[in-house]
């Protein structure tokens, strides 16, 4: 009889422990299921937003190809312009350098020699100035 009571208490404690463990796992499963449903709903909402954004931004391929061609042409023009400007600056430096050395040497120069140097400098500057874009004075406000 004593063993029967001990066995009964032991089985009851094990049954209650199993019941509590089962309730704990059930509660945990419900929380996980709720989280999964929330994630699924959020995922669908994000997919819909992305799809609507993608539909709103569909440009024809010709337009995007034209834009890429424009960028490529602009880049090529810019590189050519930079090369031309650098060449003109180098030419200006080589044209003006001898005259400037004479002027900076401190020697007294004759008027005719100064005029020749000034004409050479002016011509070199005019050649360099032709590389710069011309300002449109018709659209400027006064």
Can you describe what's shown?
The chain is mainly alpha-helical and 142 residues long. It folds into two domains: 1-58; 61-129, no CATH class. The chain has helices at 2-56, 61-104, 111-129.
SSE run: HHH
Sum up the overall morphology in one term: rod-shaped
**What percent strand?**
under 5%
Main sheet summary: none
Give a quick set of tags describing it.
mainly alpha; 3 helices
In short:
The protein is mostly helical and 142 residues long. Helix content is 83%, strand content 0%.
Lay out the secondary structure.
Blueprint: H1 2-56, H2 61-104, H3 111-129
